[in-house]
Amino acid sequence: MASNPTPEFRAEAVRFALTSGLPRKQVAADFGVGFSTLSRWIQQDRRNPEKPSAQSDLEREVAELRKENRMLREEREVLKKATQFFAERSK
Predict the structure, then answer these.
(1) Which of 11, 23, 28, 43 is the most buried (most CB within 10 A)?
(2) Alpha-carbon distance 34 to 8, whole Å?
(3) Spans of all domains in the chain
């Protein structure tokens, strides 16, 4: 890796380290940087208040998915009750 990586390269390495589920040592090796360098980039990314971190993006997505899941469960319950109601009326 070049001695001065681009901001895009750093951001991609950080994003991959936080979201891939792979050990950070492996991610660092895959990107051709040292483990301590990757760790420092992650710390700097977490301290940067200007841009949302990958972790906050994931937390926001999880919250949205939980809300959607809750709504779908409620809709399913309504449909179950309606099915039971009409099944009993048709007898």
Answers:
(1) 28
(2) 17
(3) 1-51, 54-91
Dihedral angle sign, alpha carbons of residues 65, 69, 70, 71: positive
Which CATH number does 1-51 carry? 1.10.10.10
Place of tokens 């009409």: 86
Cα–Cα distance list, 55 to 17, 23, 61, 77 (Å): 11, 16, 10, 33
Q: pTM of the predicted model, to two decimals?
A: 0.52
Max Cα–Cα distance, the chain, nearest Å:
78
> What number of helices (H) and strands (E) belong to the chain?
4, 0
> What's the pLDDT score for residue 78?
96
